Amino acid sequence: MYVMLEYSFEKYKLHSKEEEVEKNLVPRTTVIKGVLLQHTIQALVFFLLLKMTGADSAGQPSSIIVIAIQFIIAMLVLDTYQYFSHRYMHHNKFLYRHFHSYHHRLVVPYSFGALYSHQLDGLLFDTIGASLAILLSGMSPRTSTYFSCFANIKVIDDHCGMMMPGNPFHIFFWNTTAFHDTHHQLHGSKYNFSQPFFIMWDKIMGTYMPYTLEKRAEGGFEARLKREIEKDD
Hints:
Layout: H1 2-9, H2 17-23, H3 28-53, H4 64-91, H5 93-98, H6 119-137, H7 141-158, H8 168-172, H9 177-184, H10 200-205, E1 211-215, E2 221-225, H11 226-232
């Protein structure tokens, strides 16, 4: 059954199993341990945040319109924070070498490695970014839980390595699995920093690198940066 599922998904993958084994610099067991630790830290921080702000009471439920506006504000805040902190992590050689490079040990990303990172990198980049988004948007504890789940699912999809047909994230967002995959490629680490929702900051700041999605002869897809294609030509 597993073999059949694996085979059926091959035609949607951006990388083969062989590429994952060859290019990734960290075993899956280490990744799983790191992600579990990262989730534990996030849960503790969010729990303390609710306690410190006194936001653990039930309160009146918000309307759908209010929740929608809060989601949009939180998405913009999170994208802004993550773009500039992410870009700085790449341009500061000390921070990249000692912290952010942990995440890029997964040259071929996969879903459950989405939050694999050094603990300090994860705290500064993911946890504080999400906390600011929740605080500045004025979300209630319930709404913040919905938003955190939504953001985490989006990040997992960005790293899943598959371009599945009908994926709603690929319909509503240009920041897709293929877009983020180009950033994980060795020749794309100075481009496409935006995550997890929009790509506006890359376009505004001149770090957007167009790419094409090409079908592989052996099955699946390949996301190729425009700069790489021009070199081949």
